[in-house]
Design goal:
CATH class: Mainly Beta
Structural class: mainly beta
Strand content: 35-45%
Oligomer: single chain
Number of helices: 0
Strand order of the largest sheet: 8-9-1-4-7-10
CATH architecture: Roll
């Protein structure tokens, strides 16, 4: 179970959306063909935040369950229990989807 893993520091564990697409003629294009420099996914777990030079903790603002867009080149891809996840720093999250308008 994913609960036995602890995310550290200012890192965020994201379950990426599948980039695999099917063309109109039925050809499957794997995610390796996709050249988009950004990815989307759902936040699964977050770390506690980061410590600044004075030792103050700055908690992560992104919450589990949030839908996010993150830079594709700022990720570490890992496999846990048969599923692929990515680990990103919170500062590499470009957008967070909000359910309610402000």
């Amino acid at each position: 179970m994913i609960d036995r893993y602890e995310v550290k520091s200012d890192r965020v564990l994201v379950e990426p959306d599948s980039l695999e697409t099917v063309t109109e003629s039925g050809i499957v294009l794997p995610d390796t063909v996709e050249q988009d420099p950004q990815n989307r996914g759902t936040v699964v777990k977050v770390g506690p935040g980061y410590l600044d030079e004075s030792g103050s903790l700055h908690p992560i603002q992104t919450k589990p369950g949030s839908r996010v867009v993150y830079g594709a080149f700022a990720v570490i891809e890992i496999e846990l229990e048969g599923k692929t996840y990515v680990v990103v720093r919170e500062r590499d999250i470009l957008l967070e989807e909000r359910n309610e308008p402000e």
